[in-house]
Amino acid sequence: MQTLEETQIHVIKPVLSRIQDIIAATCDHEGPLLLDISWLTTIYKRIFFHESKILIKWAILTYLTSTSQDNNGKEVIHMAKNFVSKFFFTDVFRALNNSVCYIRDTEFSRDQPSSIAVALTTFLSSQIDLTTQSNMKVTFLNELLEAIVQERLGPYPLLYFSFALSKLQPFPAWDSNALLKINMILFDCIATHPTLIKATVQCFMLQAMMNMIKLQNVALLDIANCLAVFRKEDCFLRGRSLWIKVCEWLTTVSQDSYIVPNPISKILSKKSEMIDFLRITVNDVIDSRNQDVSSSTNNSRFINIPALGRLLVLIGDYYSSEVNDNSKVEDNLVVLPWQVILESAISVISRLKNSTYVSQEKIQNATLLIYNILSEMNLDDPVIQQGPYCIMNKQLQLTLAPMVSTLLQFTRLQLHNPGTQIVNRFENCQLCLKLLEEMIKLLWKYNINNDGDFSSSANALIALTATCFKSLSNAELIEESPLENINSVMTAAWVSKILTADCTLDFIKTPYYQQILTSIKDYIPKVVVIHDYRKDLLDVHSHLDKSFKGLVTVEYIKCQWLCISFLIKLAINTSINDEVGLSKILLLKICRKSPVELLNEAVDALDIAPINTAESILRCIQLLLPAVFTDDESIYLRTINCLWNHVNYCKQSHENFWPTLASFIATLLQPHFIRRINSDSVYSMITEYTVKLFELGNSQQGVSNYFVGQFEPVWSELLLEADRLISLDENSKKFLEMVLVRACTHGNCYRKAIMHLQDSRSFIRSLGPTFPVNQLFSVKKDRCDYLVRAHAINLLCQLSVGNEKHKKFVHGYLLHLLEQDEKTHASKKRSFINSHVHFTRCRIWQTIMVLLPFIDEEFAEIFLCKSLKLLHGQIQPSVRRMIEWAAILLLRNRNLHYLLQDYYYTTNTVSSLCSYLGMIFHVSLTTSEEYQESVIVNALPLILPLALANNFGIRCFAHAVLQKIWQLCLQKKLALILDRFSVVELLFADKANSIGESSKQRQKILENFYFSAFNPVTHYSIQTIFQTLPRLTLVCDEEWISPESFACVNPSLWNKERHIALLNKDSSLEMCQSGNFKTKSTASNDIKITNMSEQSENVQQKITPWKIFPTDDESILAKQLTLSNGKSREDGLIVVASLIDKAANLGGLCRTCEILGVSRLVLNNKNFMENREFQSLSVTAHKWIPTAEVRVEELEEYLISMKQLGYVVVGVEQTANSTELTKHNFAKKSILLLGNEREGIPVPLLQLMDECVAIPQLGTIRSFNVHVSGAILIWEYSKQHHFLDSS
Predict the structure, then answer these.
(1) How far apart are CA 1124 and CA 1137, in angstroms?
(2) Mean pLDDT for the chain?
(3) What is the DSSP letter of 524?
């Protein structure tokens, strides 16, 4: 425990192995306990509060994994066998709630969870297995949930805790109270967690709930309320794997009714009881009764409307999945009688067109329930259009079809009904429109038959449209009461949205569509009245609640711009042949405003509109900009700037940020603008905001992914259509190059402290494509940095080597990349392995490697002259290998081998010479027979001198290359070379039996992948460049990109043959071990603590100089320290160091004086104590020792005065009369005068010395350092007057 008070790991580490002794002492398999388990928990608790995260992580792992033997001799986890509940749920939980502890260990691959996550899963499973009593298991599992709630685990601890819970063996333990705790975890604890983590936690917790729920103690409505917390946007979406898993679980539960009787299994197995239960629950919800009185089923619980809506859909799919033949769904197939179940809701809605005396609360409950059912059905998903889901879709379609016309008529009544309150009409209209949108998805998504229901609903829609726009044309009513206008504006926006939705494509073909369109063209221009609606609202309706007026204002702005967007689309569709896609004349005719007027008003509205209303305004801006661009570029520039400001403003809202960002990028990258950036102002604007987007992507992952995804159409239009490339101006080419350079080098170098974010994402992806989160967050939605690079490389791989225009573009791009690499190489930033500079250079050369086939004979010489220069100096092995690889591929079949000789004569470092040797070997190996012999003949005279070089590394490397080349000559039977350079064979004959260090090192080099397996030609692939070579050259795995990632980004791309292969043809390179040529250990800088098999009998135990708690007042502490020594420092040794002028010596001397109890230290100037060099050696010693200042010129007077006080002055100097230190006895009151570093003690001061002391020595150097001399004499004084007295 005393050692654990230290902060230095190397001091604590030897003691940690002794914990195994304590574990053994707390085992009871061989007799009574030697120690109580509290001894062990006390040590763990102290470590959990240690400041070292490494030590805490070690303690957690030891707690979770240390094993001992039980009574049967079986290995079990010791702390699970001796489980202390209070300690685990308090101290251990606090330690586990530390995100840093979940950083992946280096020995784990990127797609594996951290070691603590694995250990936690094993520990919890072991604890459950070792607990024999069922009630104790129930208690443990419930306390586990309670601890998660109370501790409020962070995102990464909660991720792995929920993962561990999901892996536990099923056991009935959780009742309705436990389900409430799950609700608290998912609703409250994860509210601010990252979206991906939040979604994954929900998946794991739902699996754990299905495993642990005790069906006898819960009601069906309890489960429904719990399921309502799982968000469909994150994981629980109809038709996806988690939804299917819950349906399968319900099937299992219904089959268990005969094994373990419980109310839920009983009601699921009997459809008639389920129908009655659902019907009664719906009735109670519509009637707003909080309790279900069906006591016979023991399901009396409160349920909210969203939970009931999800339950109804889930039960419907559960029964639909029992249908065997899913290939054909008959109209008369009835799985559940929805007309009966929803009778009360349908009855309320059916009465709306005949009776105005329906309870407002019932209307809202009925419409909200139907809306939640339809919203839960996920009708936009193609998966829902097939299989058993069609059964429920068709049944609900038949049930709800008659309600559409009723709801449309009721909505028309809400447009202007003086007998109803404004607030109620607004809420009714808003809810009805939302419900109608979902109902139309259900009813009109399928083939439309001109039956009565469809005809009546279409006529009702026409009537609603006519009434709506007639109301909007009444200018006097709008001025008198702006609120009377809001329902009409909402309806107009809804009609506009419905007519452009995918679900109404078949409806457009009917004559009803033309009738509605005629009404819109006649009336909707009158809606486009841009004015300050908020001011009118405040003036006329000042009596209304402010929150309601704010809600209405937001809705009005959003709907108004939805209408305008619809009008603009009408104008675009009417003028398809127009170059800019928008006829200004038609826009003036339809909207009554010019594009410039509308755009200016849209920009102004964007500045004042709330965040959640901006989507429709952004859509209008995007549609209007092409028309305005040809009139005035300044409007375009102002608009883009306004949009960027809005993007930054939306960063505070996660839900609104990404749609706003996508709209901004789509506006910025419209091909219309890209083709016309020959204007320098437009080019600078687009370039400026592109750079800003990539910079934003460095701090907010996903921004660059969005940009590159929307950049692809621009790339395809401008480059892949070869006839369009010639029309590109210089600015457009520069823009494309700039985007590709930034995309190919994109990505941060993450600090280890935040690597758990990347590790968690990799772990979630490793769970497979069927995992619910991976289904919803597909690779196109993934925001990992490396996918930006994968996307950019895929774009480059779309180019054709045979296309001269593509080749010309690539040459310019390669020069751009080389220039960027030269700047990075010449920068003053530190380039160590896995640094940002290293990653940037590595990414540049990975991109260059992909484009090598585009380099022809003429450009190859230019490229090689520039790239070979980069091999001079110190660069990381991964970058060096790729530069060498590029040179090898370009030299192998070209008459440019003289460039290698020129490079050889300019080399000036060991690394550059080794690069030459590596390149010449691989060029000799892979070149054609036409050049092979001449390459070797020219190379051997240069290699042979290196085999005799003084530098050991170069000599070994040259021997290895000579050996490989000579074996090649023997294999190819190159007689000319074998005869001319026979001395090489003699060289290896002399070393054949050598076992010296040179031979060992040569063998290591030959065993490296670069010489043993790597083939520059056959291994030229995406897999080698982005995954295998980085692994082999010790680049961290966060930088590797698997070939599967490239295929996922664009699956169709790699179905065809490209200029570079995606995968290697063989696995020889993948089988190689990573490592470089150096013999030095490549151990990481991480300090790891492992259990030591051999225990040290003696360990470090640092002295604790004080036995009191320190106070805030340093002066008081100094006095306390003096008193705690038991002796006063007064009348002791005074060290005079006024002659010393080096801060380092004074700092070390100060530390020595403090440790050995010197009474006072005298300096020439106290300012020395502020010197950084002084403080680095003294640490804090100058705070704890009395000091005085005596100038050199005052020193003589000071010494005389001290002698008068009884002090004996001792000089440390070699003089004719000096006494050896071993024979000198110090007086109690002594002054020790130390001389100057160079000149010693001046002669005038020597005359004042009572004695001079010299230190005996045996070596040839004349004297000690002054600090060392002082330390030796101070120690001798302390030994004589302190330590001998103590003994």
Answers:
(1) 27
(2) 81
(3) G
